[in-house]
Amino acid sequence: MTGNVEANYTRGGLQQSVLDAILADGYDPDALDPEALAPAEEFHTFGRSATVALAEAASITADDRVIDVGSGLGGPARYLARTHYCHVVGVDITQELCDVAADLTRRVGLTDRVEIHQGNALALPFPDGSFDVAWTQHASMNIADKGGLYTEMRRVLRTGGRLAFFDLLSGPEQPIHFPVPWAQDPTSSALATVEETRDLLADTGFEIRLWEDLTAEAVAFYASLADGPPPNRHLGLHLLIRDLPTKGANLKRNVEENRLRLIRCIADAI
For residue 177, what are the contacts with CB-CB under 8 A and spacing of at least 6? Predict the structure, then answer.
């Protein structure tokens, strides 16, 4: 990992902040509609729609056992379990995020299909070939050892399984403007180029099936982050991201200046 990743994502009192927001938005935390959490639990570009699209691209089915690497508050894991009826194991290095994710999973009644574990993406606590799908969204930017990351995800996948990722990569113009949601400065950021990523996937036992560049579509989403949370909405990414308007504006600028690439990829484990 780069820098102090846990410090960047640890808020202190996040569980109470999320519960307060649930109540403020008029929901019952003891009879919680899972979709109510979508504005806060999808910690990546495009929010819920990105998870929906990645699940469709990966052809997730009820027979799949999925590992979500960098699972955050568990939103994608719960979505996959709820809508595709699969079993999902979420792994995140930040203990506070894991604690909140486990609590929300319990509140929406999905503990039979979603597990949350605190752990390191470079040393996943599971045997070889344990999963059908390795899933990750906007986590690799904090991991300098990309070869180790892809090697470890390939290790826990069965042969014939697939990797599904939706990630930010570096564009040809560098450096990027900081702060951004995953890092206050370069010490906590580790962006790979498109070429580096494709080569690493091939070197670690993956064959790319789908590679989509969605960079141009991200400008409007980042502009909305720069505007801050909508009036009278308490559940949102502002619960997780300090100074969201500044970081959203920097994301928009980085994309417009060709400093970031946004990629959706499906790759087969060979």
Answer: 250, 253, 254, 257, 259
Which CATH number characterizes residue 120's domain?
A: 3.40.50.150
Range of the domain at 233: 5-269
Q: Which SS3 state, helix, strand or coil, does residue 141 take? A: helix
Task: Show the tokens assigned to 47.
Answer: 């929010």
Domain count, the chain: 1
Is the pLDDT score of 2 beyond 90? no
This prediction has a pTM of 0.96
**In Å, what is the CA distance from 9 to each residue of 27, 71, 240?**
25, 12, 7
The tens digit of pLDDT for each residue in 109-132 reads 999 999 999 999 999 999 999 999
81: left (phi over 0), alpha (psi -120 to 50) or beta: alpha
CA–CA separation, 120 and 43 (whole Å) = 18
Q: Average pLDDT, stretch 251-256?
A: 98
